[in-house]
Specification:
There is one protein chain. With about 70 residues, this protein is an all-alpha fold. It is about 60% helix and about 0% strand. The protein is built from three helices and no strands. The protein has helices spanning about 10-20, 25-45, 45-60. It is globular and about 35 Å long. About 0% of the residues are buried.
Amino acid sequence: MITEPHLQDPDGFYAAWLDAHEGLAEAQSHALNARLVLLLANQLGEPRVLLDCIAAAREGLSSSSKNDTAP
């Protein structure tokens, strides 16, 4: 699993991601994020790496952050 910055244009990607949410209802925004995750996971396609990424994403999340909705 790559954990150091690896995107050529992280700010551009983040801006495009935020722009994609423009005008969407909360449920649509969540659906967009879910679709994006599945598309990116399919691009990667390595089950062990995907499971490591899930574990890394959960690290440090407390039960109080369950309702956070950041993209």
